[in-house]
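Morning run. Coffee first, then this:
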Amino acid sequence: MTGERATTEVIRVMVVDDHAIVRRGLIAYSAAVPDLRVVGEAADGRQAIAQLRQWDTLGEPLPDVVLMDLRMPRMGGVEATESIAGLFPQVKVVVLTSFGEAERVHAALAAGAAGYVLKDADPEEVVTAIKAAVDGEVHLDSAVARQLTRRMTAPHVGLTSLTAREREILALVAQGHSNREIADRLAISERTARTHVSNVLTKLRLSSRTQAALLAIREGLIPPPG
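And here it is:
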């Protein structure tokens, strides 16, 4: 099967950023980390997806993690993340950006990102986010997490802003269903399901599906795990 991760413990990384100096810096730092190896780079989302398609067609192993800038020409990070999540779900995306607006965090995570780190974060935190993504965890930059915590509304106020369909979406997210599974259950397209999930996270000012699940349990939308 093409695109599978090799048996080596080394984590394969692709760097996507429209600034060459940022790419050079990330590549140089990664070279000093024994269990990381940069296997490719791209200047925008479109170029990144083309490279991933080429590797997959040739049967070459895909990167384990893509470090993705958000603001880029031609195709930005949110759109590229959504495409990668759909085309190559085994490839994790960690968003790396200078912008910490909560809305961008919501959009990136709803699109399938497995982490979010600011460009001025310590290099060690970037490595932590990469390793967390490989382990199936979601890592948020601590500064972003603090910002999101401050912006969260009181749960009851937030829930009143949801439509009946969005409350249904929230419950399904809390039960651990993916966007594709939500789409199948509600007979809607996966893109529509993804949009609903993004809207729910934005309205409730939550940063992840995990937070959405905790809120849904606290508000009685679903029973706590038994």
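The chain has two domains: 11-148, 152-218. Good start to the day.
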